[in-house]
Amino acid sequence: MQKTFQLSTLLSHQVKKYGKRAALYYRDALSKKWLPVSWNELCQKVETLAGALIQSNVKSEEKVGIFAPNMPEAIMADFANYAVHAVSVPMYATSTKSQIEFIVDDSEIGVIFAGEQYQYDIACKVLETSKTLHTVVAMSPSVDLRGIKGGISWKDYLEQGEMHPNTEIISQRRAMSSQEDLVNILYTSGTTGQPKGVMLHQSNYTEIMRTHNEILSMLNDKDTSMCFLPLTHVFERAWSCLCLATGCTLAINQHPAEILRSMKEIHPTCMCAVPRFWEKVYAGVQEKIESSSPIQRKLLLDALKVGKEYNVDYKMRGLVPPVALKMQYLFYEKTVIALLLKNLGLENHNFFPTAGATIPPVVEEFIHSAGIMMLAGYGLTESTATVSCDRWNEKISIGSVGKVLDGVQVKFAENNEILLKGDTITKGYYRKAEVTELSIDEEGWFHTGDAGYMKDGELYLTDRIKDLFKTSNGKYISPQLIESKLCVDKYIDQIVVVAEQRKFVSALVIPQYDLLKELARDYGVDCTTNEELCANERVVKFMMYRIETLQQEFAHYEQIKKITLLPQPFSLD
Questions:
Q1: Quick check: 421 and 446 in contact, CB under 8 A?
Q2: Cα(156)–Cα(219) distance, rounded to whole angstroms?
């Protein structure tokens, strides 16, 4: 890693070391094969794009949008922005026109890199009325430009950079780079109001790279990381940056629905993920166990039982396992567990950072029992991702989010809210001075809105301060705690607890439709549509029975008394 970390020179530094080696892999849309992008090609494309940006009259510190799913071109566009001293503003690929319109107007964006047809069409609609937006670059070759003035293909845009390399100007811009540079504005989803643009500076990334380079020394240039979470998300953004800085190869999973297939094809050694991913893995393995023959089921259950004793009861507590247990585990690790991990594409596993929500204890325990090094953590966009995380060579407790990073200060307010200080913490929200003042107090502490506590040097989360529900009889309900407990059920895809000012707790449930329909058929229940399935009394009773079984540990007032099954998943709106 560079001694003085700088995003604008990261690739040019690495290309000297790795040259022809693959920096990225991506699945080609036509052949469906995974194709490499070498460090040489990556660096060359970035320089060409940088020339095109200068030709587009992108000024120093100007904001440039990237509205795309995960794809190599999005990474190239990011680093081209850094090369010309511009600010990268990523946008979620599923964003609506009104969300993109707000971000473009707020940041005064002139150029947007649009990934696929959906993003291109929305960006062009914004182009029609925007006072600043003048160019929309379609990154996917399959995009129909529709003859729109201001729309240009990726190929033609690169050609502009080839004809006008602007090498001298790019060198001058790179020389302007400093730790004080604003490099990213990451907008929140804005589900509870207007999006807020979190400002991240070069100094934030320099510090987060420094701390992670120390605690994640097991990451090296032999690793292959699956780029699965959106690059717009600070977790994937900072993690992928760390991977590139370490020389680790990135495999770009463009469409989230393809992730299980991608893992079996790439066999990644590491990947950052949210708990929901591991919940689905857990549910899939439980289903496999249930459908196995009696002998296979016994072997799988015994392997996981031994894995729990070895990894969770001993290794994670810093204890030395008995010799007999170690021999048992080594046998299962090379046979049953090895086969299980191979079926998931995880046989080459190194470690897997996981954050973004509460990890259900049963899922965390299962992942560790299978010998997978899950490193639970906690972070926010405002903290450039990680605040705390597990250290595999130190004591790990199920349910904690690890130890706080060196350089990050933590204290707790009277209501147990977590407050933060340090060089990874944002300086505020873009063009929102009042919101910034509400979030960062006079002493410089950032108020996270998360409640938690410390125990034996590890950080534990309880809930979002504002997310606690108060029932009409005055009882406080923690929806995340309930939801994380119930969503591990294989018949539940999503669940939302409803309790604020209600007499009792209820829930909206999106079931795993295919599994539930299959079960309904087995019991002679005729449901051809999702609507019929969710309205069927026997099906609702079955789902309620599953929930009642899982929620027995909760107090009576916390337990769900009524559910409504929804025939369609939640939309973005």
A1: yes
A2: 38
pLDDT one-digit tens code per residue, 294-323: 999 999 999 999 999 999 999 999 999 999
Give one DSSP letter per residue of 166-221, joined into a string. Answer: -HHHHHHHHHT--TT-EEEEEE---TTSS--EEEEEHHHHHHHHHHHHHHTTT--T
Rounding to the nearest 10 degrees, give the CA dihedral for residues 297, 301, 303, 305: -170
The CA distance from 426 to 4, in Å, is 20
Distance CA 123, CA 111 (A): 10
Q: Give how far the C-alpha of residue 511 lies from the chain's centroid of Cα atoms, to the nearest Å.
A: 23
- Report pLDDT digits (tens) over 62-78: 999 999 999 999 999 99
Q: Is 306 helix (H, G, I), strand (E, B) or coil?
A: helix
> CA–CA separation, 570 vs 456, rounded Å?
39
Cβ-based burial of 443 (10 A; exposed 0-12, middle 13-18, buried ≥19)? exposed
Q: How far apart are CA 418 and CA 380, in angstroms?
A: 12
Burial class of 529 by CB neighbour count within 10 A (0 to 12, 13 to 18, 19+): exposed
* 3-class SS string, 271-292: CCECHHHHHHHHHHHHHHHHHC
Q: Shortest CA distance to 103 belongs to which of 117, 84, 122?
A: 122
